[in-house]
């Protein structure tokens, strides 16, 4: 009997302690549940393709703005076969690109990496990235590119004369701007390159470009397969140029010269493959982005005749100071064109050629209570920030006067931000200053038809590449 009483007492004691501890267990579990971060809100779209079609088939302003309006400044989606977290605030962009950049790595599809080259600057981070970026920045610094002004002016005038010589024929402005930008890229990388090398590089580069945004199919005859072969030929051409420089012991101060002359602390030089990858990377970065902005500038000035007259007045004053254009522009003059500068900045904001950038989380990251899982792509949305009325009032209006006052930090990032921002931004802006100067002082142009749409190739450009006619001023 005593044993039964003892057993009953133990059972009673067990259940009593269980009942008394239940609120504490429940509270602990609740606390654990609250502390665990969730994925951001959003839609992952269709299996595999996600929301890729929606992103690339409509105005990116509409796509991104509708997402932000529905889900807030951080949301998830599925783009190009990858789960992504999109970030639409200046603070978030700074978090990913600057203050916590070590938690995220640059990432590109492998198919694109093969065409540019795995050693290219923008595929890397850490010591290698720092060394190569310093070389590129040095070769494209204001001190270096100011010496290129006469050569760039020659390219500008040659291009404009070519467009005029079409005798009133309509040209695709974007395609012509691409040719111009490519020639400037060649100039900044190789200096004065022999015509046969330039022509070979251009021919093969065009093939690579066509395959860059195609489906990565290696079947012979496909655009991607042709691009891989053309990429191999570009590597051979660059090797030949390198070999000739070494034989002639040329000590050029262009980008190729900086790459060839580099030695690390152990005396190690860059391999020809590393040099070729970075040369191709710079050419890729230099062409479409600059060409797209220049095409938009043509359109914005054409659509606002009052603004065009103000720029003409500013540039004519410089033109007359240079004895009617007989003297070349100086670096100091390009730094003293306030109206033109504001037009360039506003064109960069409005067009937002780089709508976003890709990063990949290298660990699980928690931002504002939301989980960004390791391996997910992270996309700071420059376009959303540039078109946010909180930072840029009436963002849909082209208004260069908004840049009479400097924008708030991290609300204007046309060239990115942090250690992976574009090292060639000064060269890009110099191209714009020089082309605008010669264009408005010596020529006039007309956009053909009502061109108010946008197409993507993959960067946003005016519809049909902005069909345009050019004439020389009387």
Short description:
Its cofactor is heme. Helices cover 55% and strands 10% of the residues.
Structural class: alpha+beta
Radius of gyration, CA atoms, in whole angstroms: 28 Å
What helical percentage do the residues reach? 55-70%
Please state roughly what percent of the residues sit in beta strands, choosing from under 5%, 5-15%, 15-25%, 25-35%, 35-45% or over 45%: 5-15%
Query: Could you name the CATH class of the largest domain?
Result: Mainly Alpha
**What is CATH's topology name of the largest domain?**
Cytochrome p450
Protein name: (+)-abscisic acid 8'-hydroxylase
Keywords: Heme, Iron, Membrane, Metal-binding, Monooxygenase, Oxidoreductase, Transmembrane, Transmembrane helix
GO molecular function, one term: iron ion binding
Subcellular location: Membrane
Plain-language structure description:
- The chain has 474 residues and is α+β, with helices and mostly antiparallel strands.
- The protein has 18 helices and twelve strands.
- It folds into two domains: 144 residues, Uridine Diphospho-n-acetylenolpyruvylglucosamine Reductase, domain 2 (2-Layer Sandwich), CATH 3.30.43; 197 residues, Cytochrome p450, CATH 1.10.630.10.
- A hairpin with a 2-residue loop joins strand 1 and strand 2.
- Helix 8 crosses helix 18, helix 10 packs antiparallel against helix 11 and helix 14 packs across helix 18.
- It starts with a helix and ends with a strand.
- The N terminus is likely disordered.
């Amino acid at each position: 009997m005593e044993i039964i009483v003892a057993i009953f007492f133990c059972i009673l004691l067990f259940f009593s302690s269980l009942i008394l501890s239940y609120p504490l267990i429940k509270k602990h579990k609740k606390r654990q549940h609250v502390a665990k971060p969730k994925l951001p809100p959003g839609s992952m779209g269709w299996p595999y393709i996600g929301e890729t079609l929606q992103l690339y088939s409509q105005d990116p302003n509409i796509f991104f703005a509708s997402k932000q309006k529905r889900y807030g400044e951080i949301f998830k989606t599925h783009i190009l076969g990858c789960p992504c977290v999109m970030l639409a605030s200046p603070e978030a962009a700074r978090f990913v690109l600057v203050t916590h950049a070590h938690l995220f790595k640059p990432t590109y599809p492998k198919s694109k990496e093969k065409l540019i080259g795995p050693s290219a600057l923008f595929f890397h981070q850490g010591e290698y990235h720092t060394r190569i970026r310093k070389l590129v920045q040095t070769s494209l610094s204001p001190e270096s590119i100011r010496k290129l002004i006469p050569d760039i002016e020659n390219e500008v005038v040659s291009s404009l004369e070519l467009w005029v010589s079409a005798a009133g024929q309509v040209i695709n402005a974007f395609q012509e701007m691409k040719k111009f930008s490519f020639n400037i890229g060649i100039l900044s990388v190789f200096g004065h390159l022999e015509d046969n090398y330039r022509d070979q590089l251009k021919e093969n580069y065009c093939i690579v470009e066509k395959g860059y945004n195609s489906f990565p199919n290696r079947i012979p005859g496909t655009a991607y397969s042709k691009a891989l072969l053309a990429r191999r030929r570009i590597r051979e051409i660059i090797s030949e140029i390198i070999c000739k420089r070494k034989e002639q012991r040329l000590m050029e101060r262009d980008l190729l010269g900086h790459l060839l002359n580099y030695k690390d602390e152990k005396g190690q030089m860059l391999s020809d493959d590393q040099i070729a990858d970075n040369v191709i990377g710079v050419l890729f970065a230099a062409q479409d982005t600059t060409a797209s902005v220049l095409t938009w500038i043509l359109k914005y000035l054409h659509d606002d005749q009052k603004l065009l007259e103000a720029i003409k007045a500013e540039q004519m004053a410089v033109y007359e100071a240079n004895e009617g254009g007989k003297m070349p522009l100086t670096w100091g003059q390009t730094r003293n064109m306030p109206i033109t500068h504001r037009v360039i900045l506003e064109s960069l904001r409005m067009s937002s050629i780089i709508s976003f950038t890709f990063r990949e989380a290298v660990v699980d990251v928690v931002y504002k209570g939301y989980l960004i899982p390791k391996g997910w792509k992270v996309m700071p949305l420059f376009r959303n920030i540039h078109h946010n009325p909180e930072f840029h009032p009436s963002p849909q209006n082209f208004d260069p006067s908004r840049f009479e006052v400097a924008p708030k930090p991290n609300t204007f990032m046309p060239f990115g931000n942090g250690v992976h921002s574009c090292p060639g931004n000064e060269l890009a802006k110099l191209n714009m200053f020089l082309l605008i100067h010669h264009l408005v002082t010596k020529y006039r142009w007309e956009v053909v038809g009502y061109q108010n749409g946008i197409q993507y190739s993959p960067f946003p450009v005016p519809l049909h590449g902005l069909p345009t006619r050019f004439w020389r001023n009387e």
